[in-house]
Specification:
about 80% helix; about 220 residues; 2 strands; mainly alpha
Amino acid sequence: MVSTISALAVAFSLGVTHAFEVDHMTAVTAFVAGKPTPRQAIRFGIQWAVGHGASLLLLGTLLFALKMTVPSVLGSGLERLVGVALLGLGVWTLYEFWKGRKGAAVHQEHTHADGTTHAAHHGSPLRHHHHHSSLWMGMLHGAAGTAAFVGETLVAVSQTYFMVIAYTLAFGLGVLIAMAVYSGALGGILTWSERRSRLILAGARVTTGVAACAVGVYWIIR
């Protein structure tokens, strides 16, 4: 009983640590930067974590049941696919920022020679509703990490279905809580920044987009 609790505690701790890997944080940050209210940010983080955990649970338990491992070629291919997705997310983030800035410039207030004035529209740049994109991104991240996770799980727990599922759920819970806290805190910071200076939020979006592109390229070519 004690060993079971200890194993699950370790799984939870590893999940918390795993959430803060660079590619994971880059993806979630890109989603949050486009719609930074804390509530919406937390939703993005939770959706990503649920997708990540679902992939690990479904693929991990299936591989364990079949006594199989992920071929290295397939694992590498999934990692490159993550890179492509991150690159696409970065490009989309930059495009949405550019589109929002262009729209804001078109609607600037201006006065004609006859004294008539057109009202300005100083709303926030266009914010794309990503719907369930963060969920799918999390599932892709989870699928790419299944090979390493299954290996770690088989070493960490006894070879029973119950322990594999419990270990995976504890790991996923750690990821979910860590990512929810991170995304919520980031959303709060960005919302606070937006109220004081749009330049800060604009800089965060551009930086996030460039970072996502850079991390994506690294995952593709590494």
